[in-house]
UniProtKB/TrEMBL annotation:
The lineage of its organism: Archaea, Methanobacteriati, Methanobacteriota, Stenosarchaea group, Methanomicrobia. Keywords: Membrane, Transmembrane, Transmembrane helix. Pfam families: AzlD. The chain crosses the membrane at residues 6-25, 69-86, 93-114. This is Branched-chain amino acid transport protein AzlD. It comes from the Archaea.
């Protein structure tokens, strides 16, 4: 089904304005004063919360009693923990862990080894 070009243009404009507003509003609201304590708390705790969500997502559908027995998940969690303890960089841990897990799952490395 083809969309009307005017309809697509309106949708694009609304999305662009919403994106711009989310970037500009903090500067408008917090230009002359410090941000509220809740924002500082969120800023401090967001990386660990993201990592926790990635771990939960990673483990939600694991078949512990079938090949590959959750080995890609356990391997990735160990790699992320080691990387994070070594480098103390949340973004590096998040992206490296996500990339490693996706690589192991997509290539089916452990199923080939243990299957």
């Amino acid at each position: 089904m083809m969309e009307d070009p005017v309809h697509l243009l309106v949708i694009t404009a609304v999305v662009a304005m919403a994106t711009f507003a989310t970037r500009a509003l903090p500067f408008v609201f917090f230009n002359t004063r410090a941000p509220p304590e809740i924002l500082s708390t969120i800023e401090k705790n967001l990386p660990p919360m993201i990592l926790l969500l990635l771990v939960i997502y990673c483990l939600k559908d694991v078949q512990w009693l079938q090949v590959p027995y959750g080995i890609p998940e356990i391997f990735t969690i160990a790699a992320v923990m080691g990387l994070h303890l070594w480098k103390r960089n949340a973004m590096l841990s998040i992206f490296a862990g996500t990339g490693l897990y996706m690589l192991l799952v997509q290539l089916d490395v452990f199923s080939v080894l243990f299957g």
